[in-house]
Design brief:
Elements lengths: L7 H4 L11 H14 L3 H5 L13 E2 L2 E2 L3 E7 L5 H8 L7 E4 L15 H4 L8 E2 L16 E2 L21 H9 L7 H11 E3 L16 E3 L7 H12 L14 E4 L4 E2 L2 E2 L2 H6 L9 E4 L3 E8 L4 E9 L2 E13 L2 H11 L2 E2 L1 H5 L7 E2 L10 E3 L3 E3 L9 H14 L12 E5 L11 E8 L1 H6 L1 H6 L10 E8 L7 E3 L10 E3 L6 H14 L6 H4 L4 E2 L15 H10 L1 E3 L31 E3 L14 H20 L18 H4 L1
Parallel strand pairs: 3-4, 3-15, 4-12, 7-8, 15-27, 16-17
Antiparallel strand pairs: 1-2, 5-6, 9-20, 10-11, 13-14, 14-15, 18-26, 19-22, 19-25, 20-21, 21-22, 23-24
Helix pairs in contact: 2-12, 4-18, 7-18, 15-17
Length: 642
Amino acid sequence: MSWMPRDLSSLCAVHTTVTNCAPSTFLFLQLITALFGGSRDNKLNPNPFYNFGHNNHAFGGHASELEYDFIVVGAGSAGCVVANRLTEIHHWRVLLLEAGDEEPEVAEVPAFAPVGLRSSIDWGYETQPSPRSCLARDGGRCPWARGKVMGGSSTLNYMIYNRGHPLDYDEWAAAGNPGWKFRDVLPYFRKSEDNRNYDRIDPYYHGFGGYQTVEIFPYQDSNVYSLIDAYKELGLEEFDQNTDRQIGTSLLQHTTRDGERLSTNGAFIRPIRNKRDNLDVRTNAQVTKVLIDPHNKIAIGVQFRQNGKVVEAYARKEVILSAGALNSPQILMLSGVGPADELQKFNIDVIQELAVGYNLQDHATMDGVLFGLNKTATTVTDEEREEDIRYYQRTRRGPLSSTGPLQVNAFVQTLFATGDRADIQYSLDATDVRNFITDPVLTAATAVTPLAYYDGIMVRPILLNPKSRGVVRLNYSDPEGAPLLFANTFQEQQDLLTMVEGVKQSLNLLRTHSLGKLGYQLVDVPLPDCTRDPFGSDEYWQCCAMSYTTTIYHPVGTCKMGPKNDKSAVVDAKLRVYGIKNLRVIDASIMPTIIRGNTNAPVIMIAEKGSDLIKHAWLKENIDLHSLPPPSSYQVSENEYH
């Protein structure tokens, strides 16, 4: 493979002083493509069709070499975990299908995270125009990045390891999903985890020795600890936020290992890919439908496109959809499972009517709250940037081994919050001040600068508990093409009001001694589409939220888990699709309600638990984990840690 960055040439066609469009940016992209554009997995796996063709049995009336016990659709945050865990049973053959290519080395550089967005490893999806969000964006659409690559969105995300609040999971169980309380799922969080910061965490809540390494970055610039100190001045305690409480601040842990991103591909598939002969992996294989016998409603396989050909593969036991909250509902609908009125528009035979695609939720945020830096800007010359790139390539250390100010986290409550859970999380994003005030939309669309270099910090309040709900629908012009995403962001007024309160609370940071002594200042240049309202007024911030809407890319909920009497549910508590035998969904789409935190760690947990549910069903043995002891009695041995 050869990774390709986003095409800036068309975006930068108009004359602009935004430096993202300067020749040096194009030279930077050329350099990193040359240095990091390949994949280590191509070197390890020169034959992309490795291990096919040694099983030539008839199945369901079909004579096919592509016959397996399980077929996993999507090698993303969930699918890689499921494929690993199912192939632990040596007599089970598993096919893992990924629509994208191998994971490129450029994705492994933490500070290069923005470069992956809208590149060749991103599906490139956009929301449909809405009257209350993304109004200033091109065409009124917001980009929704989704990984089209081995590792899926764990290869594309910003690597934050945060699980949300324990009550989020208790809420799932209370809604009629037994086995999903936090006490039930904590063992699965711990099972996958290899936490390498024993001195910074509460060990009761963490795992050691799992596949997925979790750690703080090896590099923090001077702003990072000043920002944490500022939050502490405002009364937020610094502690491990992956425990039984959340409101406070922390230096985030990430899914990295020794200065490199560790996607679920790197953690769960790469170590076993050429060692387990019962695992077959196919890349560039896009599944278009699940093959379902319409008479007995049993899933028997999948149809996928690869190398210009339509291929069918068959599953003796189960098909598992792990294509994510946007693609899993699309595949179900293409297979005849979904809302009858929607499927009939496309002349798709309805096999099972379910509320597929509904209940879409996401963590929305906004551009506009910008702090300019005086003494602590980290900008560099082109020559210094290239030196950092070469240094990182040799050592996996230096500024490029982290994500700048994004390492700092805070959870807070606004006046709309109830109970003990936060309703706002703050993301502190690296920004070029001059670029942003010159053209905020073009700056966002062309953002490829490494996160290590900035002279401004965009303070983004993240809406943790949105009331608004969206829907995923099939594309009217091409049902197999990009699904239509109706995000409906800020459809509910309370979401907008909560966002504004989040903005106003964030401004308290500028009152702290920690940031005041460094010369942090609010950039008070009104954004172009919001000049009708006085800068800093509630109306101004509402305009910014609706016009310069953005997201941290956490879509969930479109194949909702719920009890049988819940007409909006698509899967049961064992993740089985209602009305269809031998078909499960295991990914973010099953979340009944979005968790109050980052979604990657919960999706890995869902995959761990889902894998055990499958094993329990087919091995006919009780593999449920024993109840955990209370925190006060739990100890981690030195052997377990090491």
